[in-house]
Amino acid sequence: MLEAFVITTILCGFFGILFKKNLVMKIVSMDIMSTGVIAYYVFVASRGGFITPITGVDGADKVTYADPVPQAVILTAIVIGFSIQALMLVGVMKLARDNPTLELTEIEKNNTP
């Protein structure tokens, strides 16, 4: 059930990128899609186990530990996603100086020769 919600989040973000005409809404849709991808990655990575290898369990012979590598990858993906989103918002701010609207069709009409 949780996996279906995560995939729905990814698809909502993807279709937002395709069908929204406002540039800010496209950026928000991209952020929603990346959040869904990160949630799916965490969901898949947590299937191995829930116990951290550092603390462990005393006296347990066969315990499945959580893999710490996906946690590091997810933290890196969050930081990179935040920086990309900030860079895109700066680009939209520069476009907003020249154009009265942020609708993609209007910007294309104003900038075509």
From TrEMBL:
GO terms for molecular function: NADH dehydrogenase (quinone) (non-electrogenic) activity. Gene3D superfamilies: 1.10.287.3510. The chain crosses the membrane at residues 6-25, 37-57, 69-92. The keyword Membrane applies. Keywords: Cell membrane, Membrane, Oxidoreductase, Transmembrane, Transmembrane helix. It is found in: Cell membrane. Signal peptide: none annotated. Its EC number is 1.6.5.9. It is a multi-pass membrane protein. It is an enzyme of class 1 (oxidoreductase). Belongs to the CPA3 antiporters (TC 2.A.63) subunit C family. This is NADH-quinone oxidoreductase subunit K. It comes from Laspinema olomoucense D3b.
